């Protein structure tokens, strides 16, 4: 029982940190109406992962993260170029970019399949249940605990530091990019920095939870929070709370039903979102009814 409790704590802690990192970035992606760019990046980085794997010979090499990060930035630049220069709609720009780069990644896997032990499934689907046995062991043989947990801590520090450092710039350019440019904020650089953080966080979280959960954590908690509040600070706080709630409930339901942890977390996130839709809709109707009833007395 002690082993289960310890493993459960490590998995929930790591999943919560990944959820917070993705959620924090997802808030600003949502405000910029670019939520699905995270999905595009999660697929577009496949060529970078393959090239990094070919160079390093391992899925855990730094070259994999660097290659994926470069492709993530390239995907961002392509989407931005198609939207601004080629005057293609944002959704079409995202679709064109991620399908093209993802297809190139699949071709690379097919061409070099005889040289590397790599396929689409191991790239795109992680399993956080293996976290307690995937340890970070030094050259002297000392164990520092789960490797992915330390990576999640690093991700959270980097994302938190980035948002804290550029909070004002992110806030202004997310709500009114043209006004930000007028007052001297380098909106393009801020946007590129945000996309770079999304690329890094997405790729580094693949191995732990997989692309599907990463995309869900980028989109669903911020969207759920947005149903309850429009103020930025409460929006961020509610997003963090939702991510933690999804991680805790999702893990224990997966354990109860002996199912995929990542899949259950996504399911819980969806249920929480739709419950919020129902509750906020009723709250909105109630507030309208109250205003109508009290209107004759307000004058």
Fold and architecture overview:
With 299 residues, the chain is mainly α. The chain has helices at residues 2-31, 37-44, 46-56, 62-84, 90-111, 120-124, 147-165, 167-175, 177-182, 187-228, 232-257, 261-298; strands spanning 135-137, 143-146. It has a two-stranded antiparallel ribbon with strand order 1-2. The protein starts with a helix and ends with a helix.
What's the short version?
The chain is mainly α and 299 residues long. The protein has helices at 2-31, 37-44, 46-56, 62-84, 90-111, 120-124, 147-165, 167-175, 177-182, 187-228, 232-257, 261-298, and strands spanning 135-137, 143-146.
Record field, number of beta strands = 2
Low-confidence runs (pLDDT<50, min 5 residues)? 293-299
Mean pLDDT across residues: 81
- Count of discrete alpha- or pi-helical segments spanning 4 or more residues: 12
Sheet having the most strands = 2 strands, antiparallel
Strand order of the largest sheet: 1-2
Distance between the termini: 65 Å
Task: Please give the radius of gyration in angstroms.
Answer: 21 Å
State the secondary-structure class.
mainly alpha
Element pattern in H and E: HHHHHHEEHHHHHH
- Overall 3D form: globular
Q: What fraction of residues sit in β-strands?
A: under 5%
Helix content: over 70%
Task: Looking at this protein, list some descriptive labels.
two-stranded antiparallel sheet, mainly alpha, 299 residues, single chain, disordered C terminus, 12 helices
């Amino acid at each position: 029982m002690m082993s289960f409790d310890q493993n459960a704590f490590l998995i929930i802690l790591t999943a919560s940190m990944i959820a917070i990192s993705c959620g924090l970035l997802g808030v600003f992606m949502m405000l910029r109406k670019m939520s699905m760019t995270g999905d595009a990046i999660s697929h577009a980085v496949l060529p970078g992962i393959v090239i990094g794997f070919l160079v390093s010979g391992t899925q855990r090499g730094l070259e994999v993260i660097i290659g994926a990060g470069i492709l993530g930035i390239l995907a961002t630049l392509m989407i931005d170029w198609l939207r601004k220069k080629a005057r293609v709609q944002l959704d079409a720009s995202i679709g064109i970019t991620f399908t093209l780069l993802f297809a190139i990644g699949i071709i690379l896997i097919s061409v070099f399949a005889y040289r590397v032990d790599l396929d689409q499934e191991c790239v795109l689907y992680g399993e956080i249940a293996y976290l307690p046995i995937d340890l970070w062991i030094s050259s002297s043989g000392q164990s520092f605990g789960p490797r992915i947990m330390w990576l999640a801590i690093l991700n959270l520090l980097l994302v938190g530091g980035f948002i804290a450092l550029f909070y004002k710039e992110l806030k202004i350019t997310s709500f009114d990019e043209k006004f930000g440019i007028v007052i001297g904020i380098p909106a393009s650089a801020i946007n590129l920095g945000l996309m770079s953080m999304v690329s890094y966080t997405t790729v580094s979280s693949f191995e732990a939870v997989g692309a599907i959960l990463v995309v869900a954590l980028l989109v669903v908690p911020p969207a759920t929070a947005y149903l309850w509040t429009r103020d930025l600070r409460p929006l961020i706080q509610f997003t963090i709370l939702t991510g933690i709630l999804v991680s805790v409930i999702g893990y224990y339901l997966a354990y109860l039903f002996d199912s995929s942890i990542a899949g259950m977390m996504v399911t819980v996130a969806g249920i929480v979102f739709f419950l919020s839709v129902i509750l906020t809709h009723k709250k909105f109707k109630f507030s309208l009814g109250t205003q109508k009833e009290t209107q004759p007395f307000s004058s």
